[in-house]
Design brief:
294 residues, mainly alpha, MetI-like fold, flat
Amino acid sequence: MTSQRGALIFAWLLLLPAIIYVAAIVAYPLVDTVILSFTNASLRRTTDWVGWTNYGKIFNETFFQVITRTFVWTFFSVFLKMVIGTFGAVLLNAAVPGRALFRILTMPPWIVPMAIGIFMWGWMYNGEFGMISGMLQRFGIVDGPVAFLAYGNTAFWATIITDVWIGVPMVTIYFLAAIQSIPKDLYEAAWTDGASRFYRFRRITLPLMVPAIITMSMLSLIATFNSFDIIWILTRGGPSGETTTMIIDTYKTAIGSNKYGEGAARAVLICIFLSIFCLAYFRVTRRLNPEKRA
């Protein structure tokens, strides 16, 4: 009994630094944000308890549009990352000359500092001297300059394309590792039976990549849902709020308008949405893993 108690104490001592770190970095700010969401905190010295007032202000027609826009923006961005990343990984895994060079060339969007990459896209979207507008005019697709970030629809898709460009390399490398972990015997047996390349991809590669796809989709969803830099640098949520997502709206409310209580309520709502996503992820992974389900 003494030995078991000593081992238990020793185990807790080993976990203590991690527990302190989680409590200081995660638990305390989270609890403080929840408490702040029930107050009218601002630049004033006095703070009063207002109960559910801040949450009542959230659920209006404008914010419902922000929530819908956030989900649409996240869905298309994550979907495109998964599709492009999957086919990119398959191509990088193919036995072609210069494969190592192609793998290296996929990394710049991930290696280049995010702010620099976003500013580069901002210049390309410029209507007067941007490369994209110039190419469209050169090929006769448009008659004049197109300021992509000046109109709601084009600005919305421009931010999605930029986010996809930044996120695809990580997805591709992750999926490439998943493909390379698939036993070669399965491909050799299918090739011996006369299976085509597409059939092997559909019946071997894709099914065995499902766990990796689900995991990366979840990680990408969380990162995309909380994406701030891309939208803020390109459009600051404009024009006319057409690219304002929940994280941008939270920042504008808390920092831009100095309404810290209302901003905290919005942050809590974001945390609730992400928690629901995580619970759904764990439920799916449990069903895919028979051992955990048992």
